[in-house]
Design a protein that fits this description.
There is one protein chain. The protein has 240 residues and is of the alpha/beta class. The chain has a single domain, classed as Rossmann fold (3-Layer(aba) Sandwich), CATH 3.40.50. 38% of the residues lie in helices and 20% in strands. The protein has seven helices and seven strands; from the N terminus they run H-E-H-E-E-E-H-E-H-E-H-H-H-E. The protein has helices spanning 15-35, 53-56, 104-114, 143-152, 166-182, 189-210, 213-218, and strands spanning 41-45, 62-67, 74-75, 89-95, 115-126, 155-163, 222-229. Helix 2 links the parallel strand 1 (41-45) and strand 2 (62-67).
Length: 240
């Protein structure tokens, strides 16, 4: 069954942000599939319901979902090694997980251990967002801070993209707030929320169109990063 996160209705309270995120993931997935080897292995580290599985699980690729829940294909426990072989993944993906992880050394260390030497990490997490425990919520990042966290743990960041700029995410936060308040109204709350959030969607679209790209990339609601294992002694290149 296709996850609703792949194509959320525009009146959903977080539809604008989800749509921009999935657009970025689709673009990466299309390019990665063209470059990947046959029978590639993708490991989703903190998968939840693995909403983007269908974008990667094509052309003979295998996709393993790893999560704390017992229903995951590969159950994991914080602080313990993921029960998979080292250097077994061509691609490790992590979507909106890092802000919920306390032990970054463990989590990013496992991501690096699981990657082949020529593998890629695709990771998205929040720059600016409201508190949303699942079951916990610990951090937000600046662009520079996220690059530094990954670099300190043995990755070389190849690209980082901001998703939803500061004008649009202020409106997005209002939509989240209205949805939470209106949802309390018996009977008509969901309808009222859909109307309000649906009206806010084109405003977010316009606000992102008039926001300079530099502002989006340095003040984003979400950052999506591609990284590889750093080569000891190599000097990282400059990011755009």
């Amino acid at each position: 069954m296709t996850s609703p996160r792949l194509d959320p209705r525009f009146w959903r309270h977080d539809a604008y942000t989800l749509r921009l995120l999935v657009r970025s993931v689709r673009r990466f997935a299309a390019g990665w599939r063209m470059r990947s080897r046959a029978a590639a292995m993708i490991i989703d580290l903190g998968a939840g319901d693995a909403p983007y599985r269908s974008l990667f699980e094509t052309d003979g690729a295998s996709y393993l979902s790893c999560d704390l829940d017992a229903g995951a294909e590969v159950p994991i426990a914080p602080g313990s090694p993921v029960p998979l072989e080292s250097a077994s993944a061509d691609l490790v993906v992590s979507f909106q997980v890092l802000e919920h992880v306390w032990d970054l050394d463990w989590y990013l260390g496992e991501a690096r251990r699981l990657l082949r030497d020529d593998g890629t990490l695709l990771l998205s997490t929040h720059g600016t967002w409201l508190y949303h425990p699942h079951p916990t919520d610990f951090r937000r990042w600046t662009r520079d801070g996220l690059i530094a966290e990954l670099t300190a743990r043995g990755f070389e960041v190849r690209a980082i993209e901001g998703v939803v700029g500061p004008l649009a995410w202020t409106t997005q936060f209002r939509a989240l707030g209205y949805n939470a308040m209106l949802g309390r109204i018996p009977g008509v709350g969901s309808l009222l929320s859909a109307i309000v959030c649906g009206l806010m969607y084109p405003r977010m679209w316009l606000e992102d169109r008039i926001t300079p790209r530099y502002w989006v990339d340095h003040n984003a609601a979400i950052y999506i990063v591609t990284a590889v294992k750093a080569v000891p002694g190599a000097v990282p290149g400059n990011l755009p």
